[in-house]
Amino acid sequence: MKKIIFLIFSIIVIINLCPAYTLASVSDDYSSTKYLKDTSIIYQDNHVTIECTLLTESFTSNFIDTLSATQNKTASKKYTIKNSSGKVIAIYTLTGVFSFNGKSAVCTKSVCSSSIENKAWKFTSKTADKNNNKAIGSFSIKCNTPNMVISKTLYLTCSKNGNIS
Hints:
Helix content: 10-25%
Largest sheet: 5 strands, antiparallel
Number of domains: 1
Distance between the termini: 65 Å
Number of strands: 8
Strand content: over 45%
Shape: elongated
Order of helices and strands: HHEEHEEEEEE
C-alpha cells in the first residue's frame, strides 16, 4: 500500500513540476504574417513590363517545431505582366513552403497559380518545382497580336536563417 501511495504522490509531483504553458503549447499553433512591399521590374520591352512583388512571409510553428528548432515559412512572389499603357495582362504567382533551422533550409512544397486579365494573351505553360532551398517557377505567355511569346524562369529562395529572396 505504501508503494502505491508513493507512486501516486510521485506522479502528482512530476505533473506539478511541468510548466503549465508547456502543456498548453502542445495543442496551440501560432503564426504571424509580414507583408512586404518589395516590388521590382524584372523584364521590360516596348510592349510588356513584368513586375515582381514579394507578397507575404508567413511563419508557422508548433510546440514540436519549437523543441526541434525547425521553423517553417510560406512565401509568395507575384509576377504582374502589364502592357505598355500599364494595364494588367496577366498574373503568375509562385508560392514556396520552407523549413529552416539555422544550419540549412529546404523547400518542402512549391505551387503556382495564374490568371489572365486580357483575353488576347494566354499562358502556354506554367510550372512550379522545388530543389533544395528553392521554389522554382516558370511560365510562357503568348499573344497573337502582336505576335509575342515571353518565357521566364523564376526563383524563391530561403536562407538557412529563414530570409526569403
